[in-house]
Structures are given as C-alpha cells and as structure tokens.
C-alpha cells in the first residue's frame, strides 16, 4: 500500500443528506398547506386559545377581537379538515358546538409558540424600524 494513490488516502466526507421529498418553493407542493395555515393570523390565535381549554364557537368569537363569525367558521372548518381541531356537537337548544385542539394541533401550536415568543421579544425593535422607515423616528 506504499504506492497507493493519494485520492485513496483521503478520508471520505459525510455523504450529503437526501433531499426532502417536497419542494416548498413549487406551487403544487403540499407543504404549502401547512405554511398557508400558520401564515393565517386567525389560526395562530385560535390554536393559542384552544391550547388552554376547549371552547365553544361563541366563546372563541368573543375572545378574538376583529374576527367575524364567517371567518371563524371557515377557519375552524379548515383546521378540522387538517386534523388540528376536533368539533363536538351537543344536542342542546340551540345546538352548541365545542372545539378542542388535537395532539397534531398541539405540535403545530408548540412550533408556533417560538414565533410568538420572538414577536414578544422583538416587537419594540420592529416598531422602531417601521418608524425609521416611515421617517417618523
């Protein structure tokens, strides 16, 4: 092995990790479903409230200022379809509906919690940057 080529003596580097099966930059990528969901402010607020406890439709509507009944209904349907919340109907007059976060929804809410923490920690810097940009500083 004295005369072995130098290339043979070079230690192999760690092979590159395989590419993920989805390309989030492609329009047809299913990953965008999740990105669209967490980009929606109502989703973030609804999941945050449901982390505390299951809530009825009207309680959610009262808690989240600026949220319309129509948008709440649409958002809850999407969250239920995605497996992030469950909907339980109670046979009362009128019918009552309660929403609860699922284990899958909890994992998403935990990931979003880091973003909320970042927002709380950095809101003053963001507002100052906006004032500077707008010429109000």
From TrEMBL:
<keyword id="KW-0238">DNA-binding</keyword>
<dbReference type="InterPro" id="IPR036388">
    <property type="entry name" value="WH-like_DNA-bd_sf"/>
</dbReference>
<protein>
    <submittedName>
        <fullName>HxlR family transcriptional regulator</fullName>
    </submittedName>
</protein>
<dbReference type="InterPro" id="IPR002577">
    <property type="entry name" value="HTH_HxlR"/>
</dbReference>
<feature type="domain" description="HTH hxlR-type">
    <location>
        <begin position="29"/>
        <end position="127"/>
    </location>
</feature>
<dbReference type="GO" id="GO:0003677">
    <property type="term" value="F:DNA binding"/>
</dbReference>
<dbReference type="InterPro" id="IPR036390">
    <property type="entry name" value="WH_DNA-bd_sf"/>
</dbReference>
<dbReference type="InterPro" id="IPR011991">
    <property type="entry name" value="ArsR-like_HTH"/>
</dbReference>
<dbReference type="GO" id="GO:0006355">
    <property type="term" value="P:regulation of DNA-templated transcription"/>
</dbReference>
<dbReference type="Pfam" id="PF01638">
    <property type="entry name" value="HxlR"/>
</dbReference>
<keyword id="KW-0804">Transcription</keyword>
<keyword id="KW-0805">Transcription regulation</keyword>
